[in-house]
Design goal:
One of its GO terms (cellular component) is cytosol. It is found in: Cytoplasm. This protein is 43% helix and 16% strand. It is built from 14 helices and twelve strands. The strands form three sheets. It has a five-stranded parallel β-sheet with strand order 4-3-5-6-7, with helices on both faces. A five-stranded parallel β-sheet has the order 9-8-10-11-12, sandwiched between helices. Strands 1-2 form a two-stranded antiparallel sheet. Strand 6, helix 7 and strand 7 form a beta-alpha-beta unit. Helix 2 packs parallel to helix 8 and helix 12 packs parallel to helix 14. The protein starts with 10 loop residues before the first helix and ends in an 18-residue tail after the last helix. The chain binds 6-O-phosphono-alpha-D-glucopyranose. 6-O-phosphono-alpha-D-glucopyranose (G6P) binds next to helix 4.
Length: 368
């Protein structure tokens, strides 16, 4: 096992650090920068039908569901096809309205999650085209879908998903662009978006260098009992994922929320004992996020901000700032999630938790 950990203290840390390489693997052969084009073998034969979808329903559980939410933002922005994201467990028991004009995308790292498998079978029975995004090659979900793409993230051992999540988001980004081709985006726009994606792995390597700094921040919050994670737009699902990572492995209660919804509830909880993590990158909602930070500060909440490199103004508002390289909004989730994975990891290890095998959780939930 020590050899498999490759010198890292835990599989989770190894998997976090593997992400730049995994991201390259996910894109390999699929993203062709010279021609600015995409080659997605697993869905090539079905692309026309996928592009004609009346709507797309994404079904998944846990972290894969969070990737699905980012997929919703990406597909709607790029391809202008309406998307709904459903928990597989809810979808399967709701007698969902599905027609053969719908496309269902199921996302699963293991390819064995019972609820996701049942959702896939339900969708097939109702006549939808079902596409899978799985990590484990030859898994049940991968075999039962009509078409699909593998994430090629390699085996993920840590129960808390990290590299599989970023790989899923990259696949969804590529799928969203493929759905836009010849419809909603020009070839030059697609080439530009692909270039931005191709720059992500080196930006992630940069962020990973902050691990020690994040370890120090973790030391100040290791005894917190609650955490709030706030983000907007593409970073709202990242807020959910950051909160999930923390609760899974450190057993600290954490909630993710869209930042603007704070005033409809969580604001009542804010005091000096409630650290708030803001994902405050410079995008169209940046100034709104700043006013949300002010609201937290005026109630004595402690603030950790994930901000864009060069943003010095935010230092005066936040207790701690973790910087990420500048990037366009659609790729930011792939960057902002990295410090949140590291923060959860460091807080959990400082609390003496078994991060690779957290209590009560299973890597793959094959029963209901
Ligand atoms: C479990 C795991 C999570 C995972 C979820 C969905 O809860 O602990 O890490 O996100 O199942 O698993 P899947 O294999 O379908 O992505």
């Amino acid at each position: 096992e020590e050899i498999e950990k490759g010198g890292y203290e835990h599989f989770m840390l190894k998997e976090i650090f593997e992400q730049p390489g995994v991201m390259e693997d996910v894109m390999r052969g699929r993203v062709r920068l010279e021609s600015g084009s995409l080659h997605l073998g697993g869905i090539n034969d079905n692309l026309e039908q996928l592009r004609k979808a009346r709507r797309i329903i994404i079904c998944a559980c846990g972290t894969s569901w969070h990737a699905g939410l980012i997929g919703e933002y990406l597909i709607e922005e790029f391809a202008r096809i309406p998307v709904e994201v459903d928990y597989a467990s809810e979808f399967r028991y709701r007698n969902p309205v599905i027609t053969p004009e719908d496309v269902v995308i199921v996302i699963s790292q293991s390819g064995e999650t019972a609820d996701t498998l049942a959702a896939l079978r339900e969708a097939k029975e109702k006549g939808a085209l079902v596409m899978g995004i799985c990590n484990v090659v030859g898994s049940t979900i991968a075999r039962e879908t009509h078409c699909g793409m593998y994430t090629h993230a390699g085996p993920e051992i840590g129960v808390a998903s990290t590299k599989a999540f970023t790989a899923q988001v990259i696949v969804l980004y590529m799928v969203a662009l493929a759905l836009s081709q010849g419809r909603t985006l020009s070839d030059s726009e697609i080439a530009l978006y692909l270039r931005e994606l191709s720059e992500v792995p080196s930006k992630v390597s940069e962020i990973l260098k902050s691990s020690e700094e994040i370890h120090a921040i973790a030391g100040s919050y290791r005894n917190a009992r609650n955490f709030l994670y706030l983000g907007r737009g593409y970073n709202f699902p990242v807020a959910l994922e950051g909160a999930l990572k923390l609760k899974e492995i450190s057993y600290i209660h954490a909630e993710g929320y869209p930042a603007a919804e704070m005033k409809h509830g969580p604001i009542a909880l804010i005091d000096e004992d409630m650290p708030v993590i803001f994902i405050a990158t410079r995008d169209s909602t940046y100034t709104k996020i700043l006013s949300n930070i002010e609201e937290v500060r005026s109630r004595k909440g402690r603030v950790i901000a994930i901000a864009s490199e060069g943003d010095e103004d935010i230092r005066s508002l936040a207790d701690h700032v973790i910087y990420i390289p500048a990037a366009s909004a659609p790729v930011t989730p792939l960057l902002t999630v990295i410090p949140l994975q590291l923060l959860a990891y460091h807080i959990a290890t400082l609390r003496g938790c078994n991060v690779d095998r957290p209590r009560n959780l299973a890597k793959s939930v094959t029963v209901e």
